[in-house]
Design goal:
The complex is a heterodimer of chains A (356) and B (155).
Chain A: E1 4-11, H1 23-38, E2 47-51, H2 54-57, E3 78-81, H3 86-97, E4 103-111, H4 118-121, H5 140-151, H6 157-170, H7 185-189, E5 193-195, E6 198-199, E7 206-217, H8 218-224, E8 229-238, H9 252-265, E9 274-276, H10 284-292, E10 298-299, E11 309-310, H11 314-327, E12 333-340, E13 346-353
Parallel strand pairs in A: 2-3, 2-4, 7-11, 9-10, 9-12
Antiparallel strand pairs in A: 1-7, 1-8, 4-7, 5-6, 8-13, 12-13
Helix pairs in contact in A: 3-11
Chain B: H1 21-31, E1 36-40, E2 47-48, E3 66-68, E4 72-80, E5 93-100, E6 107-111, E7 124-129, E8 142-147
Antiparallel strand pairs in B: 1-2, 1-3, 4-5, 4-7, 5-6, 7-8
The chains are: A alpha/beta (356), B mainly beta (155).
The structure holds zinc ion.
Zinc ion binds at residues 41, 43-44, 46, 55, 57-58 of chain B.
């Protein structure tokens, strides 16, 4: 295995709706910042890979517009995933492992504000035969999962509100968060349900933002970062598509992914200082903490997705934030998790480490 | 045995907000005023029409917009001869890449008021704008391009 590290990370502010900038305009300043922070020029980048989703944009091949911000002319090695950009990072990591190059730029752009009504769009994730015709609204399946998680004793409405309070408080230190602040549990529990037992605060707020991570291998990584955040292990797995055949209170794919990532890394999740989890809903923190067997790690010190969820950039931001904690010397080992699909269907785990 | 199901309805309808961006908005607003607004990159001197916000080669913001009169030449074209659903005009008709004078990029549009067999690469053309009440923030504010009739004589 080659040593591959996150050497740079940047993101734009999470906004509920950016009506000023097109895709390339949102992305360009973020790419500039990430590339500049790594001390490289765009010509030094060997591989570009991105994540976004046409169903959020409402156009086919929408990400092509974003390529204007990376200088996409031949010769270029370039790829894209129709998913959260954490999966784009997985592709870049594999590409670097294959020895195809030394520096990869990964970006995610997510504009959840463009669909006029997400209830029209989210059911398109579901199978077209049994679920999509029922047109469940955007938070319906998460509501089923949350209720099952409470019934299984994993959490409670109070416990979920406490997760939100902690995350929004942590987000006061994150100027790029979409929401933050000191709130109290009792007040949150006074709010009406949006999809019982979920209240508005339990649902990560969807919005618009871009994120960029620069990965580098071996000597390039040591040259570009004072303290590289080494990707020691990375794996992603998926559970079956139809939610009805899953036990929604567990996440076997997360468990498998973390098992493989730990095997690659040579350390386990009980060794990590911080964990950035892609919690699209507050109740998922309990499910993920179980599946990951987290033990004492600080969870979502950035505020996490409950403070801002720019679709298809949210998972990549988890990796960027976990790497930041290592690069800033706040952590020696960190875990980042990303998810895609309904009710934690697909999961990615990345284990990071700083030089001792 | 029952026959397998071969079709089933699964209708989707999705509505979206389009964000034009600041760069594209300058161009679209210009069209509503019969103006073709271009922008130049100070780094590579490329003139974009329509202009984005920044140069995709140099990744720097473009200079302030300026107006082109829209006259230019046909840089390539094809004759559409077949009918298809949603077609607005009866075939045959000419779709062309037009290189407006002063622009480094090409606009795609119709070339009309000329027989298709008389269109040629290098032909001088000019925009024909729609009437005031039809003007909009759309390329449809230009009805089509037509041959330039220099000195009042037919081309
Ligand atoms: Zn330029």
């Amino acid at each position: 295995m080659r040593d591959v590290a996150v050497v740079s990370f940047a993101q734009s502010p999470c906004q509920a709706a950016n009506r000023r900038d097109d895709m390339a305009d949102i992305l360009l300043p973020v790419i500039r910042e990430a590339v500049y922070a790594a001390g490289i020029g765009r010509d030094d980048v060997d591989f570009v890979v991105s994540g976004s989703h046409d169903f959020y944009e409402g156009r086919t091949f929408s990400y092509i517009e974003s390529l204007d911000a990376v200088g996409a002319w031949p010769p270029i090695s370039e790829s894209h995933v129709e998913s959260d950009a954490a999966w784009a990072l997985a592709e870049a990591w594999s590409w670097l492992q294959l020895g195809e190059g030394d520096i990869a730029l990964v970006y995610g752009i997510g504009r959840g504000s463009l669909p006029a009504d997400l209830d029209q769009v989210v059911p398109a994730q579901l199978d077209p035969y049994f679920l999509a015709p029922l047109a469940p609204h955007r938070d319906a399946i998460a509501g089923l999962q949350a209720h099952a998680a409470i019934e299984a004793g994993l959490t409670s409405e109070q416990g979920m509100a406490e997760v939100v309070v902690r995350c929004l408080d942590a987000a006061t230190g994150n100027p790029l968060a979409q929401r933050s602040g000191q709130v109290d549990v009792a007040r949150l529990l006074d709010a009406p349900y949006v999809s019982s037992p979920l209240r508005e605060h339990d649902v990560a707020p969807i919005g618009d933002a871009a994120a960029v991570v620069v990965l580098a291998a071996d000597d390039a990584a040591r040259r570009l970062a004072e303290r590289p955040a080494w990707v020691r292990g990375l794996d992603h797995r998926m559970d079956t598509h139809y939610p009805g055949v899953r036990d929604l209170t567990t996440s076997p794919s997360t468990r498998r992914a973390v098992g493989r990532a730990a095997e690659l890394a040579g350390f386990t999740t009980s060794d990590v200082d911080i964990a950035e989890l892609h919690t699209e809903y507050s109740h998922q923190e309990a499910i993920l903490t179980n599946a990951l067997e987290l033990n004492g790690a600080v969870v979502n010190p950035s505020g996490g997705p409950l403070a801002g969820r720019p679709v298809t950039a949210t998972g990549l931001i988890r990796i960027g934030e976990a790497a930041r904690q290592i690069r800033d010397g706040n952590a020696d080992r960190a875990l980042a998790h990303a998810t895609s699909g309904q009710a934690l269907q697909q999961n990615l785990v990345c284990l990071l480490e700083g030089d001792g | 045995m029952t026959e397998p199901i071969t079709t089933m309805p699964s209708p989707f309808r999705m509505d979206y907000t389009y964000v034009a961006g600041t760069g594209r908005s300058v161009f679209l607003r210009g069209l509503a005023e019969r103006r073709l607004m271009a922008r130049c990159c100070a780094g590579c001197e490329q003139v974009y029409l329509p202009p984005p916000e920044f140069c995709s080669r140099c990744l720097r913001e473009l200079e302030p917009p300026f107006e082109l009169d829209g006259r230019g030449v046909v840089s390539t074209f094809c004759v559409v001869s077949f009918p298809f659903p949603g077609q607005r005009i009866d075939p045959p008709y000419v779709v062309a890449h037009i290189q407006p004078h002063g622009a480094g990029t090409r606009l795609m549009h119709l070339v009309r008021e000329v027989e298709p067999e008389d269109v040629h690469i290098g032909m001088a053309v000019e925009p024909v704008w729609v009437s005031d009440d039809e003007l909009d923030t759309s390329l449809l504010s230009i009805r089509h391009f037509r041959p330039v009739h220099y000195g009042g004589a037919d081309a």
